[in-house]
Amino acid sequence: MAKNIFQKLRGVAAVSSLILITGMAQSEPRHGLSMYGDPGLPPDFVSLPYANPDAPKGGAITLGNTGGFDSLNPFVRKGTVPWQLRFFTHESLMGRSWDEPFALYGLLAESVEVPDSRAWVEFTLRKEARFSDGTPVTVDDVIFSYTLLGTEGHPRYHGLYRQIEKIEATGPRKIRFTFNTDNRELALLAGMRPILSRAQWEGKDFANAPLSEIPLGTGPYRVSDYDAGRRVVLTRNPDYWGAEVPFRRGTHNFDQITLDFYGDANVLFEAFKAGEISAGREFNAELWATQYNFPAVQRGEVVKSTFPHRKPSGMTGFVINTRRAPFDDIRVRDALIHAFNFEYINETLTGGALPRITSYFSNSDLAMRPGAAAPDVAKLLEPFQGDLPPGTIEGYALPVSDGSARNRKGIRKAMAQLEAAGYSATDGTMHGPDGTPLSFSILVSKGSAQDFSNSEKAAEIYVRALERLGIDAKVELVDSAQVVERLTTFDFDITTFRRALSLSPGTEQRFYWGSEAATQDGSRNMMGAQNPAIDAMIDTMLTARRAEDFTAAVRALDRVLTAGRYVIPIWQFNEGLIAHRATMKYPDYIPLYGDGPNYMPEVWWHEDVSQN
């Protein structure tokens, strides 16, 4: 089990970390960049604090995914891509430290410069930066990449591009981005876009490229082989240009990473038990406690490791599509939340082991506080009184049942809210104001290994409760590829939902729940939220000059989202659970953010190599 060594974290990390440091903005080239003040690591740092700079290189691991894939281009909307791919094959001008919020360090860029106003940011490329085919990374490649991604890439890249006034070469290895928006985070975001090869893509149809057209990257790994829909083999580049860059020391230690795809989570788990998979994350506390006692565990060949973290809970549960009636009525959404018997479902599926998510940023200093809003938060919200969901300023909390299967109190409240919305039950069927029976489906991905909510079973229990209200609800099981396609066009009533959030929320919040994103296919605003108060709180976050103003804006945003009854929240994961081969090792130091794609397997290594 991983050691809990949070005492090593800098004291500022416990209270939104570097967010609370103010200081003079940088006016000359620096090794790193932070939202407020200076980044935590000095210019001469050897490696990230959660990486082992002496970790041995070598060995091979196999990771498992469910479903399949029909694309190896993670930068466009079209197709289903192995989710891990972009973390291994491509890099950006700067890299993020997962031990401190809002801190970036030089990667493809050796230095960064910003003025006090942050109206622009300038990067200087490393002379040694190379693509995996050995060609140098140039200023032209950078400018081309930002333009291509901002116009033809996945919609998540479009927001930044629209806020760039111009991109220009200011020297043989220098690129300056000038912004048209007052947003302090833009200087950081400009350093975090993947860099593509102009020579590969110029004149080609980037958005609709075939599976065989694999984007060339600068990262430590490249795709060496694949079997469409079934397997991807990533091989570490022996000539990787950045092996000695401080940000990269001790990372990407395995020579080969294979991604195998399975029909569902049960088949994947059996493959893991049989030794075909090297490591897997578990998101079900009950399964972790009861199903990880198979022979390989008993023999010590497989180890269970736990990784605590201090990041926000994010939001996990069932998201309600407000683009469709009757879910555009908050009274109906409130009824659905009361009918969801969390305490009973949690006890049934997890043994009551996991606490409930209470808001989008719960488990962190950025979370809304119980009860009425504090004066600084209320001041931000008061101009939007007419647009605020009930309870936003006064205080809103999720209903709590007595834990029994009947949930009489919750059902009574749900019935009252439905009646207030014009619904009535006749002969055991709930009818709307126009006499139409109330019915809907809950879209669930069939057999997904990333089922954070044990959603199929939770949905089945929920459907039985809805029957007591006369609601005809059904669970719609669909394979993962179809789910991705339907979510892209918001073709669902209610579906499973997981939105991870960080201690450094920023411009991505517009893509998550901004009004513009609600009608943009491919956006992550699954609930279809369109509220001027949400937009204003995000704008306030992005223009805040003081850390306390930033925190107040995030807490205000949290209140509007939570009181908006967009999601039926379930349990949170306050620690990461990874079962892995005993030969897979990791540093003792756990980053502030705990486990994530940039932790396992990025800073892990193979023990056998060190013993040879």
Description:
- The chain is 25% helix and 19% strand.
- The strands form seven sheets. Strands 18-17-19-14-20 form a five-stranded mixed β-sheet. A four-stranded mixed β-sheet has the order 2-11-10-9. Strands 5-6-8-7 form a four-stranded antiparallel β-sheet.
- Strand 3 and strand 4 (103-106) form a beta hairpin.
Give me the Rg, rounded: 24 Å
Mean pLDDT, to the nearest integer, reads: 92
Tell me the major beta sheet. 5 strands, mixed
Strand content: 15-25%
Q: Helix tally?
A: 18
Note the overall shape: globular
Quickly list its features:
globular; 18 helices; four-stranded mixed beta sheet; single chain; 19% strand; disordered N terminus; five-stranded mixed beta sheet; 25% helix; alpha+beta; 612 residues
Brief summary of the model shown:
With 612 residues, the protein is α+β, with helices and mostly antiparallel strands. The protein has 18 helices and 23 strands. α16 packs antiparallel against α17 (547-563).
What's the topology here?
Layout: E1 32-34, E2 60-66, H1 85-89, E3 94-96, E4 103-106, E5 109-113, E6 120-125, H2 139-152, H3 158-162, E7 164-171, E8 174-179, H4 186-189, H5 198-201, E9 221-227, E10 231-236, E11 256-262, H6 265-273, E12 279-281, H7 285-290, H8 295-298, E13 302-308, E14 315-320, H9 330-339, H10 342-350, H11 375-381, H12 408-420, E15 424-426, E16 429-431, E17 439-445, H13 455-467, E18 472-478, H14 480-488, E19 494-499, H15 508-513, H16 532-543, H17 547-563, E20 567-569, E21 575-581, E22 584-585, E23 605-606, H18 607-611
Parallel strand pairs: 2-11, 17-18, 17-19
Antiparallel strand pairs: 1-4, 3-4, 5-6, 6-8, 7-8, 9-10, 10-11, 12-21, 13-21, 14-19, 14-20, 15-16, 22-23
